[in-house]
Design brief:
- The structure is a single chain.
- It contains 14 helices and 8 strands.
- By secondary structure, the protein is α/β, with parallel strands linked by helices.
- The chain is elongated, with a radius of gyration of 25 Å.
Length: 345
């Protein structure tokens, strides 16, 4: 291989691995996200092992840093970084550009090597999205500790009364889950929910239906494992809307993070009256997810005042509740007591 090609590959390989290490350390130390850290580390090792086809000693012998004309050329903004977002963006771009350079010059070695380098570049695009979403959670989720699920009620008036009860008790996140309503009635409920919550700063989520969420100007949509994919929902609600995903295993939680979900629901923690499952994950899954995933995450499934302390003991500080509110003697008091417990964490 020509010396000039070896020099190009050497410089590009160094740039790519250095950039990957920067974003890996951010995922590791800033996000405490072992899932993304592991994926970034694996990519860095895959690149290193793949490029072993170009002997390291040959690269070193071809290296000539002292007479490299590029070492004295600097862009005006090269040393300007004001926040971690800029550090992440600059280093992901550095990695992607370096991988493209390696890919092009690897074609001299052979098409199989170039094709593998192309797949590495695509992996960085997915990881960049996942890391960026995790590093910059939507501000609307900052105070979202208790998400209360509300059905459509017998009519609009009853629905309005239910929602007013929640808002007066201090609930700041409400999910409309009314599977038995016809679309027109569901839209009416969604618009009414948006209207009466406007002065409270309430986060409004529509269950399952991205189209309805978009029509009623909800803050987002929550998806189950059998609903639309995050990609499909995003094409409907746009980039400014929240997308949540219910996850029932660690692998599903990992996938939701890679898909670009803004938050996840994790469970079913306990048996509930709204959904039937063959088994319940208890708090074990909560601990597993908390140890790996840095996305905002709500414990879901059968949570009430009698068992919420078990959830809090797992380290989770967000819950989604349905029956635990509406089956209580006083739904408003149940909201207040759950909020008090959550705020104490």
């Amino acid at each position: 291989m020509d010396t000039e090609v070896l020099r190009i590959l050497d410089a590009a390989i160094n740039r790519a691995t250095e950039g990957l290490r920067v974003v890996e350390d951010h995922a590791r130390f800033a996000l405490d996200d072992s899932h993304l850290t592991r994926l970034l580390k694996q990519l860095r090792h895959d690149l290193t092992s793949t490029m072993a086809q170009v002997p390291a000693l040959d690269r070193l012998l071809a290296r000539d840093t002292q007479s490299d004309v590029g070492t004295t050329i600097a862009a005006p903004t090269e040393y300007d970084r004001t926040c971690t977002a800029e550090v992440l963006l600059a280093n992901f771009q550095r990695v992607q550009q370096a991988l493209r350079c390696i890919e092009e010059f690897s074609k001299i070695v052979g098409p199989e090597l170039a094709a593998r380098l192309e797949s590495f570049r695509y992996r960085t695009y997915t990881l960049q999205k996942a890391v960026s979403v995790a590093a910059h959670p939507d501000p609307r989720l900052q105070d979202a500790r208790l998400c209360v699920l509300v059905d459509g009620g017998a009519n609009v008036d009853q629905f309005t009364s239910q929602v007013q009860t929640l808002l007066n008790a201090g609930a700041n996140t409400v999910q409309l889950r009314a599977k038995n309503l016809a679309d027109r009635e569901l839209i009416k409920r969604g618009r009414r929910l948006r209207e009466i919550s406007a002065d409270h700063g309430t986060v409004i989520i529509v269950n399952d239906r991205a189209d309805i969420a978009d029509l009623v100007h909800a803050d987002g949509v929550h998806l189950g494992q059998d609903d639309l994919s995050v990609k499909e929902a995003r094409s409907i609600v746009g980039t400014s809307a929240l997308i949540g995903v219910s996850t029932h295993s660690l692998e599903q939680a990992r996938q939701a993070a890679l898909d670009g979900a803004n938050y996840i629901g994790v469970g079913p923690t306990f048996p509930s009256g709204t959904k039937q499952f063959s088994e319940f994950t208890g708090t074990d899954l909560l601990r597993q997810v908390l140890a790996e995933i840095s996305l905002p995450a709500f414990a879901i499934g059968g949570i009430n005042l009698g068992n919420v302390d078990q959830v809090l003991a797992s380290g989770f500080t967000r819950i989604a509740v349905s029956g635990g509110i509406w089956d209580a003697d006083s739904p408003a008091e149940a909201v207040r007591q759950l909020m008090t417990k959550l705020d104490a964490q």
